[in-house]
Amino acid sequence: MNPLKEKVKSGKTVLGVLATIPNTQFAATLARTGIDWMMIDMEHGPIDIASAQSMITATAGTDCTPVVRVPVIDPVPVKQVLDAGAFGVIFPTVTTAAEAELAVRSMRYPPEGIRGVGPIQASVRWNLSMGEYIEKANDNLLTIVLIEHIKAVENIDEILAVPGIDVAMIAPFDFSASMGITGQLDHPDFVAALTKAENAILKSRIALGGLGQSPENTNALIKKGYRFFVLTHDGALIESAVANFTDNIER
Fold first, then answer.
1. Which of 24, 167, 197, 240 is the most exposed place for a label (fewest CB within 10 A)?
2. In-domain check, residue 194
3. Average pLDDT over residues 129-149
4. Model's pTM, two decimal places?
């Protein structure tokens, strides 16, 4: 049903790319590169719900699972992206158990949650009847929380205890910014807080995710127990590919 959730449950390492460009053709091309999933970014990318639905649709027929990062922890945008066919949702800046609980309930139909019923386009993308989709959605959608604030670390055990969370992703740059040491990922205070969060997630039933900044960095994180990665954003991929191509041309 949801290949990405099955991979997460089985402990496999999965690789994704951050999609910020609201373009169907580029999303379709990106989905065919062999990545496991795509983060369609409605928080930092200029992507509206119509563009998000087109990008979700563009992944059909590939092995790439579409996941959407919503801009806020709110049932309304969650309902919209799920009804557009998203297979999972990433919730930004989860800092308390109450926020984590709202995130989970936003993902689920009653009585387990508060999601409104109307998955017209979702059933098309999932290749199910509406009745089948409604029956299966609660168990198959992927719920991902971002640990990107020092307050989340202070409440990490309570957040991880919330049933229904599949992945906790650590976002190091916002995390460090919340401590007043933006980008200082080797700062002793950041390293201590990061280690606390990592250890708590690794001891839980929830998969540990994060940012793979390079192949070397990603391999190092895999050795630490990370299994769910977003590697880079689409703009960086284009810039790197063009630069590598042109740098090898004699002129």
1. 240
2. no
3. 98
4. 0.96
Residue 231's CATH number: 3.20.20.60
Mean predicted lDDT score pLDDT of the chain: 97
Across the range 82-107, mean pLDDT stands at 98
Domain count, the chain: 1
Sequence-ordered list of residues with C-beta below 8 angstroms from that of 209, at least 6 positions apart, any chain? 144, 167, 168, 169, 170, 226, 227, 228, 229, 230
In a domain, 187, yes or no: no
User: Which pLDDT does position 251 carry in this prediction?
Assistant: 81
Tokens for 185? 């990922």
- Assess whether pLDDT exceeds 90 at residue 248: no
Q: Which residues are tagged catalytic?
A: 44
pLDDT digits over 18-41, tens only?
Answer: 999 999 999 999 999 999 999 999
Residue 111 inside a domain? The answer is: yes
Residue 200 lies in a domain: no
Q: 34 is in which domain, residue-wise?
A: 3-140+213-247
